[in-house]
Amino acid sequence: MSKRTGLKRLKQPHASATENDEAPPDADPVQTMAIDTTTATSTSPASDRSLATVLLAIWHLSRPRIVAMVALTTLVGALAATGQPLPVLTLLNALLGTTAVVVGAIALNQRIEHLSDCRMLRTAGRPLPSGQLRDREVTWYATAVTAFGLVYLATTVNLPITLLTALSWLIYVWVYTPLKVFTAWQTPIGAIPGAMPALLGAAAAGAAFSLNGLALFAVVYFWQFPHAMAIAWLYRKQFAEAGLKVASVTDPTGRTATTIAVVGAAVLLPVSLLPLFAAAVGWGYALTTTAAGIAYLAGSIAFLRAPTDRTARTLLRVSLVYLPVVFAAVLLAVFL
């Protein structure tokens, strides 16, 4: 598809193609946790598609960067929950099963949001809007990998991780996704499945609701607020055209989005120190996470004082550094 054709499709959201987080991380929140800057790409007619073309489209549909972030969070949650190494096979089974369910949720999310994705330049190049995959193919793929993941977790890991994974899938697909066109309150709801991988990892270790698991869940949950608000501001015009009720659309002044960002970053400071109060980590962890948290809060305050694309982009970059720093500090504190 040429650039001219791609732009034409954006003006015709009901064209033949049909299918959003930030998105750890291209965009979502959970949220995602990331930004997908892909634009419309050329597509051969459906009848001329090769197997390689279809497989590549499925790869892009699965949002591998987001999946990698989810897998990393699950891994850290599993290792930090008890402070003891897990059997490698248990860990691999947990990662495989949860990854399959996450992929299914991401694919079904894109199936539900196909019309809004057609209207936004940042999502128009995804497999459904660009015509690389058909609606039915995505529906069957999402259903199959979700079912496989849940059955695999139930038979190879344990029941708690299976139930938590199913709950996360349910909230993401059937609560968070539909709410996007109705209310800006979808952000705190979408942050629940966005943070759930921390508990999934802890559940794999047999300690789903350990202090470390809950603390890591809280960190990832509140981390998403500044991250998501930065994305919402940078793409506010496209979100508005797509009819998505993010905070930057419902309040164009930016006051709501920037306030949410500051609140999330401020809450992160005490939340990240919870393991310290239980003597699960040392002062090295506390100093590292506090320094990272202050930087995150400073970026959020700068965004509040001057809501511009520049301050939003800076905040987004800080958010992408914050989480890996905290993860590294957790692992070092637990195992050293």
List low-confidence stretches. 1-45
Question: How many beta-strand elements?
Answer: 0
* CATH hierarchy: architecture: Orthogonal Bundle
Mean pLDDT: 87
The succession of helices and strands, N to C, reads HHHHHHHHHHHHHHH
Can you describe what's shown?
The chain is mostly helical. The chain has one domain (3-335): Farnesyl Diphosphate Synthase, CATH 1.10.600. The chain is built from 15 helices and no strands. The protein has helices at residues 3-10, 51-61, 64-82, 88-112, 114-119, 135-156, 159-179, 186-204, 211-234, 236-242, 247-250, 255-271, 274-277, 283-305, 309-335. The radius of gyration is 20 Å and the shape is flat. Residues 1-45 have low confidence and may be disordered.
Which features would summarize this protein structure in a list?
336 residues, mainly alpha, Farnesyl Diphosphate Synthase, 15 helices, 71% helix, flat, disordered N terminus
Q: What's the short version?
A:
The protein is an all-alpha fold and 336 residues long.
Lay out the secondary structure.
Elements: H1 3-10, H2 51-61, H3 64-82, H4 88-112, H5 114-119, H6 135-156, H7 159-179, H8 186-204, H9 211-234, H10 236-242, H11 247-250, H12 255-271, H13 274-277, H14 283-305, H15 309-335
Helix pairs in contact: 3-4, 3-8, 3-9, 3-15, 4-6, 4-7, 4-8, 6-7, 7-8, 8-9, 9-12, 9-15, 12-14, 14-15
